[in-house]
Amino acid sequence: MSLVVRDLAVSFGGVAALAGVTFRVEPGTITSLIGPNGAGKTTAFDAITGYVRPLRGEIGYGDAVLTGLRPCDIAARGIVRTFQRTSVFARLTVLDNVLTGLHLRGTSTLAAILGGSRTVRVEEARLAREAEAILALVGLADRRGRRAAELAGGEQRLLELAIALAAGPRLLLLDEPAAGLTAAEKLAVTGLIRTIRDRGVTVLLVEHDMRLVMGVSQHVIVLNGGLVIAEGPPAAVQASPAVIRAYLGQGAR
Amino acid sequence: MARPPRPAVRAALWLSLLAVPYGLPSPYHLHVLIMAGIFAILAQSLNLLLGYTGLLSLGHAAFFGIGAYASALLALRIGWPFAAGFVAAVVLAAGSGYLIGRLAIRLRGAYFVLVTLSFAGVVSLVAVNWMSLTNGPLGLPGIPPAELLGFAFVTKRAAYYLVLGVAAGAYLLCARLVRSRIGRALLALRENEALAASVGVDGTRYLALATVLSAGLAGAAGSLYAHYTRFVSPEVFLFSYTVTMVVMVVAGGKGTLVGPVVGAVIFTVLPEALRELASWQWQMLLYGVLLILTLFFLPRGIVPSLAAGRERR
User: Fold this and answer.
1) CA A83 to CA A176: how far, in whole Å?
2) Are B100 and B119 in contact (CB under 8 A)?
3) Residue A104 in contact with partner chain B when CB distance is under 8 A
4) What's the pLDDT tens digit per position in B63-96?
């Protein structure tokens, strides 16, 4: 299923963060959304996932219209995001963080839980196995008992990714997953993003590290001042005069 | 998280809880313990909200009072048996919890505090002024003792076991809840609501659910209180009851299962112990000083601080 964003406009107190943006994200690809600070990348994420209400425009995923839905309902449709500022459940253990990410995969009802039903225990065991598998995938298995707040910055980034993966995304929106990481950690995250895509998850990426973006993306969309100024395959975008001007300023050429 | 106690420790705890009524010097001491049990249920109830979702209800006495009045009125006016009145008390309190939850959770934070606080004020005014139903400030005397399957819980000893049973049940339900996917959803909302929503946790739904369950438990405590003291008056809505509950949860250790129970026992027994130790002028002063010292030296609460200390050794 494709994500289709049509004429999306968002403004904060009269200032336009997005001024009518149109783009598509094709299934099974890694698509990147780049642009200078303040270009509207995170605002686009917020609008797609229901965290801000657009002024106008439409967001569709397959046959479903996402505009107007709450974030939790959008997550239930398989669209999961991470946040620019590292977001984990700080006082919970690493394992509990991932188990919380698995929320939608559990089906135990309140009555079954309060009644101490056996099916609840069976489900808990299944969820614990799934959580362990995800922790192994991102390389945090030996940290499972730590509180999230005790992890190093790079590990928290990985945990954030693990929480998002646990939610079972079909479309995963990653907001600067490599920000603040060491070179080695960036390499690991890049590999992880590819693995995620290979497992059939569509990835929409916001990232400032151009080497990472150009290395993994099939398609790059460039935002500036709330508008799409270029899009295409990485090589074409890198060569675009409009993009060079946007990044280096007027008269750079 | 604190490790669960070993089976031997648990068995010893249960044995001593069951044996306590036979080892106390006077019925007065047993009365204090029964009140501690009722407050333990209330503290569990408040902890579901304050400890697990982070929502502060300053109107919790309202749910307690609604449970107490519902039980009392159903028994006195239309002769309902205890079990039916108890269930009705839980359902009515939970229902009012639902209304408050729907109303207040859209607003969160300070607004939740204010809505719960004013709700308690309104309910208390109704209890005082609706003379024909509630008998106003005079209250409702002569509530029959609890009765189950033909056994009447008339003696203090019997009442103790009834309260112990309900408190243990409440503890078990809370334990099952907080270790489930619903409990994790509540914690997630407390920790980071935006992140919780991004993985599909419906904040409005789960916070309303927590309010309903919390209010229902408080209603159960109210029903027990009515049938134990055999008298209900608008005093059950006193703000000081709510404050006592908050003190028990915070000082005992909010967001833990054992903390509120320990808090309830300590802060029910403490004022009574001080009454024996000091003249009345000094009682409240000592109580205040001890409370401040507890919060100063054990800011996370008694139980989490002790658990952390044990792990460090």
Assistant:
1) 8
2) yes
3) yes
4) 999 999 999 999 999 999 999 999 999 999 999 9
Residue type for position B179: R
Q: How far apart are CA B244 and CA B43, in angstroms?
A: 9
Mean pLDDT, chain B, integer: 90
What is the helix (H) or strand (E) element at residue A58, kind and residue range? strand A56-61
- If phi over 0 gives left and psi between -120 and 50 gives alpha, with beta otherwise, what is residue A6? beta
Which pLDDT score is estimated for A203?
97
Distance between B174 CA and the closest CA of chain A, angstroms: 8
Quick count: other Cβ atoms within 10 Å of Cβ B280?
8
Q: Closest-CA residue in chain A for B184?
A: A100
B195 touches chain A (CB under 8 A): yes
Rounded CA-CA distance B85/B72 in Å is 8
Q: Is any Cβ of chain B less than 8 angstroms from the Cβ of A22?
A: no
Pick B202's closest partner by Cβ from A72, A93, A108: A72
Q: In Å, what is the CA distance from B197 to each residue of A9, A51, B192, B209?
A: 23, 9, 9, 16
Are the C-beta atoms of residues A175 and A82 closer than 8 Å to each other? yes
Residue of chain B whose Cα is closest to the Cα of A122: B180
Q: How far is B179 from B80, CA to CA, in rounded Å?
A: 36
B53 DSSP assignment: T
ipTM (interface predicted TM): 0.92
Residue A223 burial by CB count (10 A; 0-12/13-18/19+): exposed, middle or buried?
buried
Positions in chain A short of pLDDT 50: 252-253
